[in-house]
Design goal:
Length: about 90
């Protein structure tokens, strides 16, 4: 399978998902995956204001992307994850 197709399919499936994004320099960024194209990924804090705390990161600078729910499942975390200092709402299953 084409690498670009696999990458785009994975990113499309994780739009509006909380992620940990690690840069090649070792810096860790957290946020909601908002959009992507062939060269960049846009993450934000989930604010309704489109320009508020939005970051555009070149894909060439990214080492790893991990959905936060996956990290919680691996570590067994039960507490909601805070995104940029704002507590994440807890969804109750019916």
């Amino acid at each position: 399978m084409n690498q670009r197709f696999t990458e785009d399919a994975w990113l499309d499936a994780h739009i509006d998902t909380a992620i940990d994004l690690y840069l090649c320099s070792g810096i860790k960024l957290m946020g909601l995956l908002q959009s992507h194209d062939i060269d960049v990924i846009v993450i934000g804090n989930g604010s309704d204001d489109p320009g508020q705390d939005t970051q555009m990161i070149y894909k060439s600078a990214i080492s790893t992307i991990q959905p936060i729910r996956l990290r919680q499942a691996i570590r067994g975390d039960q507490a909601p994850v805070a995104l940029h200092g704002r507590p994440r709402p807890v969804r109750k299953e019916l």
